Amino acid sequence: MSLVVDRWNELAEIKDELADRDWFMGTSGNLSIKVKDHPLEFLVTASGKDKRKRTNSDFLLVDHEGHPVEKEESKPSAETLLHCEVYNRVSAGCSLHVHTVANNVVSEIWGNHHEVVFKGQELIKAFDLWEEDAVLRIPIIPNHPHIPDLAEAFGEHIYSDRGAVLIRNHGITVWGRNGFEAKKLLEACEFLFQYQLSLMHAKNSLLNSTNI
């Protein structure tokens, strides 16, 4: 039980920090952290909660299929199956999903390319990409309304213990070996998205000014 408490507190601290960034608008987003491997159990955010507040019912302990381990009044996040895909496929320890304006806009602009690519940016090192010509490719998948279909499409891009996938007009899901790494990857992605959009805006403004 102490391990559950430790992981609960760790996930609550991550939730608080992301809430301070306003990354949980309209109760959106969901978070999870693994408690144990055998049998697989992880904590996941309860559905419909205001994640800017901390309560004793913020998370539920669920199994490898996303079902509550014990009888609960709250329900797991509707997207718990995405977290199941992560923990059932790789040895990741934490998975984070947030909706921001930047990641939604990026997913729409590059959605038809099925990925957004970053090269020559310092923050891609968060993904352990250190080579001079390293390239970070973040897949973009369709926003299937049927969660099992969405989870299946999402699962096709889970290859290692760390990664990120954009869901078109739905947000980003990242996962890492632990809570620290997952949060680091999320922060890096959001920086890259905001940088790319700011760069596009600056280039368009410069182009328009030279055509006047």
From TrEMBL:
Cofactor binding note from Swiss-Prot or TrEMBL: Binds 1 zinc ion per subunit.
Pathway the protein contributes to: Amino-acid biosynthesis; L-methionine biosynthesis via salvage pathway; L-methionine from S-methyl-5-thio-alpha-D-ribose 1-phosphate: step 2/6
Annotated binding of Zn(2+), by residue: H97, H99
Keyword Lyase: yes
Quaternary structure note: Homotetramer.
UniProt family annotation: Belongs to the aldolase class II family. MtnB subfamily.
Function recorded in the entry: Catalyzes the dehydration of methylthioribulose-1-phosphate (MTRu-1-P) into 2,3-diketo-5-methylthiopentyl-1-phosphate (DK-MTP-1-P).
Protein name per the record: Methylthioribulose-1-phosphate dehydratase
Gene assigned in the entry: mtnB
